[in-house]
Every structure is written in C-alpha cells, then in structure tokens.
C-alpha cells in the first residue's frame, strides 16, 4: 500500500532555551484524518514541540513539511496560513472580550469601510458555537464569565471557524467535567471523519487509547517511539514515558547515558 | 447542567442591561456628576451652573479630557504614559519656536505649518517611546519616566528657558476662540444626524442577520434623549455672550476639537481592528501574540496616538496663554491618568472606555472649578482631589467584585 502524503512532517527538530535543550533531533509525522497522541513526562518537550509547529516558538534547527511542501513557520500567523490551528492548554482567550470577539480575534470581519462588522461576527459565532454546544447563548458577556467547558468550546470554535486542516490540542480535556470531556471526544471523532489531522497532547492514557490512532512518545526532548496504538498496552506506554524503554526492549538514543 | 448554572439572576439583569445598552457603571458616574453640579450650584449661589461658568468649565476640561482618551488606550494595553506634561511643554515650545523664529510671526502660513509640525512631532516622539517600550521590552513606566525628564529639558534647549510670546493670532483661536451661535447650531444638527444614522445603521445590520432588535419606541426615546442633550449643550454654550453684546459665543474651539477627537477615538476603540487588538492585548497579551496579532506594533501605535493627542493639547494650552512657557503642563500626566482611572479604566489593563474617561475628566474639573467658586484655597483642593481619586477606584473595585 502506498504511503499517503503526511499532513505534517517535522524532521530533526532542535530547540534550546539558553543552555537547556528542550527538543533534540525530534521527528513527528501526522497523516490526514488521524489522531496522533503525543505522550511524555512533564518537561519531555511536548509543548515546546507543538509550539514550534504552531509558530509560537521559532525552531533552532530542523525542517517542517506541510503536505510535502517545505513550510517556514516562524510566527503564529505563518502557521495559520498553512491551515494549522492550535488549542492551547490555557486556551489563550482574551478574558475581557466576548465570545465573537475571541473567535475572530486576529481575523476580524470588517465592513466595506474597514470598520469591525460585529453583527456578522456574532452571526457566524452563533453558527459555529451551535455545532459545539447547542445550549450556548451567552454571546455578549466577557468570556471570563463563562464556565470551563464553555471557554473550551470557544477555544475550539476558533479553530473550526477558519477551516483548519491540522489541529493541535494541548490537554483538551484537562479542565473539563465528564460530560464536557465526552463532548470534546465526540468532536474529535467528527473532525477526524472530516479528514482533519489532529495532534493531541494528553496525560490521560485512557483518553489517548480511546481517541488516538497512533502515538508518539517523547522523553528528554527526544523521540522514543511511534506506532499504532493497538501495538502496545498501557504498561508499554508507561515504560516508554518513564524509562524511555521501547516495547522491543531497546532504549531511545540519549536516554541510557543520562540514566547511568 | 453547567450551561444553565451560569445564567442566574445577575446574568439576567446584566443581559437586560445589554439589551437596553445601559451601562450601570457609567450611569452611576453621571449621577455623581449631577450631584456634584447641584451641590456646587447651591453652595455658590447659582454661579456654578451659569452659562459663563459652564462655558469655562468646558474649556478647562478639554485638554485633560482629550489626552485622557488616548491614555485609556495606553492603560488598557497595560501601559502608562508619564511623559505627557513634559512632552506637551516640548511640543508647545516647538510650535512657538516655528511660528516666531523659523517662520515670520503673523505670516500667512505660519499657523498651519506649526500645527502640522507639532502633530507630526507628537506622533513621532510618542511613537518613538512606544517603539522602545514594545520592541526593546522596557516597561512603559520606565521609558516614559525617562520621557518626563527628557522632553522638558529638550524644550529648554530651544529657548534657553525664555518664554516664547506672543504667538500667531490665528493660532490663538485654538485656545480662546469660539464658533458663534449659527455654527454651534450647525454642529448640534450634525451631531443629531450622526446619532440617528448610527442607531438606525446598527438596528438595520442586526435585523438583516435576523437578530432581535429593540422596540422602535425604545430607540426613539434614546434618540430624543441624545438630541435633547446635544441641543441643551449648544444652547448653554450660546447663552454666554461676548462682553457688552447680545451675541452668544457658541461652542469654544477647544471643546469642538475635543468633541471631534473623542468621537474619532471612540470609533478607533470600538470599531477598528487596532482598537480590538488594544483591548484583547490588555486582556491577555499571550493570547494576542498566539492569535497572530502584531502586538508590538499595536503597543507602539497606542503611544504614537497619545503623542499626537498631546500635540493637540499643546496647541490648545499655548494658544490659550498666547505663550509657550517651559513650565506649561506640569503634573498634567497625573491629571490625565486620574481622569482615565476615575472614568473606570483599570490599571491592570483590558478595561476602560473613552466615554468614561471624558466623564472622569469632567468630574475632576467640576470639583476643582466648584471649589474655586466657593473659595476653597488651592492646597485643600489638591487634597480633596486626591481623596476623590482613591475613593473612585475603591468604588470601582467593589463594583467589579460584585459583577463577578
């Protein structure tokens, strides 16, 4: 079977902050219509890696290919231009603005004369929020007055409104109750069915096994293992996360020397 | 269900407030202002609310109020500008220098060339401070504190401390002139037309997208209230006559400038991308950055804008005095910041309105003017103003807590 062109290919990515190597020689591949679970300890470099993909951090080395084409992503604006949308762990909402202003933040609809078209943005916001949470009708309050689930829905709506091809989710369910977690899980399945490629960071192994097609494990900023989620069980995954030991018993490069 | 929980009683009241577009906070400030006016009018035996005093009050308020509209945007974007008074002195001296030393005094082009140079220099030097703040990531408090020391000293270099006077007579109209009864009614009519057009344009754009609109009766009442206020204002300004004459002065030029600039600033704050980014950046700088907003340019832009407004303030102040002394605008930055803060601008960023700052400036100036009328010496005046500033912020904090 011929391999489809990956939606994202990150090759040999490096990133350091001062003397600290946050990400070293890291590879990541993401195919259209799949969910890739990105796993690792706190400080393993997951968030740094996805922030490189979303343009929040410029990379120090390596290459990013989007649908086979070399993408020079330096800023969040670049990433959005390549169809990459990101839902950050802290949601990155402007708390003092209302829902429509947040959904369109940075990409406002304007009238012919260059003024903000509030009515049009509210109209579109109502449509996109209906997909996520049919009961939501609080479009005029600042988002600081919304519940955790509602805020999450606003953050997700920001990605849906602009027809993302690639969605990055950093701990999408960490702040949510069971009902809302289920909602997000359903949403991820729907997005997947639409052919959108999703990278999901999660600490919840249950979520990862439930939603992911493949997983990539990181440790100490390096790649440990990538494979189908049904090739491994939770114990294997924990061994990779904690010890860096792959299912075949080998260790990832750069792991053993530091432990011994 | 979580969705239902958040829509409690207070949510309902707030929603009612949004539907009627009445801001309870703003209304309470207007209430305080009216109370102050009535108090001083009684205490001064009817002097305070005389057309003559109101005309003067309007002129006295204009400089602080118009710079405060810019200060709102600076503070909302988590900055502060301490250089206002000093920069105002520098720009005033620059303008005076050009009118009297570079170009011929009373030359036909001297007045407008000096105005353009002042506006450009205000935007340039304000923007320069903004660029240092945004691109070198130095706190605005420090950079503009430097500006506070720098600009007045730079003004000294122009004149070695000599006060430039007299200034161009056409230029002086900016400070003490007024537009007369006829043109005041023209401005009044134009203002009424803009209000009507704005309300119906908003109503129409909402209806086209199938949103509920307010009952037409409510809109008409709002329009009548606005037109009534505008007409009352024009009538009051016209009721103050020139000495030994039946001719009303009409709207003072500085107040006309304030009205125009405040309208433009309200438009910028509420209806442009730049304004939206200022507020969004103030609410969450990281979110603005991650949303692809060029946050550095936005911050620098806010400082360029307030620099330009400071230039307008410099024109009005020096034109009123018919002189550009080095001491002009001392402590003005603190008055401007106080006006913005009394008007509900939060120093934590993200919150503040242009209209609030205008009312804040008017409230402060009313207090000062009223105390002068009833013969309070200047030191107790300052002490009262200080108390009012702190009291207003305390009230605001209580209000914010309740909202949450």
Molecular structure report:
The complex is a heterodimer of chains A (260) and B (404). Chain A is of the alpha/beta class. Chain A has two domains: 8-83 and 164-259, 3-Layer(aba) Sandwich (Rossmann fold); 95-162, no CATH class. Chain A contains nine helices and ten strands. Chain A has a six-stranded mixed sheet with strand order 6-7-8-3-9-10, with helices on both faces. Chain A has a four-stranded antiparallel sheet with strand order 2-1-4-5, covered by helices on one side. In chain A, a hairpin with a 2-residue loop joins strand 4 (61-66) and strand 5. In chain A, 47% of the residues are buried. By secondary structure, chain B is mainly alpha-helical. Chain B has one domain (25-37, 46-177, 252-403): ABC transporter involved in vitamin B12 uptake, BtuC (Orthogonal Bundle). In chain B, 76% of the residues lie in helices and 0% in strands. Chain B has helices at 2-5, 9-20, 24-43, 51-76, 84-102, 110-135, 140-159, 169-176, 180-208, 216-239, 253-271, 273-283, 285-290, 295-321, 332-342, 354-373, 378-403. In chain B, helix 3 (24-43) runs parallel beside helix 16, helix 5 (84-102) crosses helix 14 (295-321) and helix 15 (332-342) packs parallel to helix 17. The longest helix of chain B has 29 residues, at 180-208. Chain B is globular, with a radius of gyration of 22 Å. The model of chain B is unreliable at 1-10 (pLDDT under 50). The chains are: A alpha/beta (260), B mainly alpha (404). The interface between A and B is large, with 45 and 41 residues.
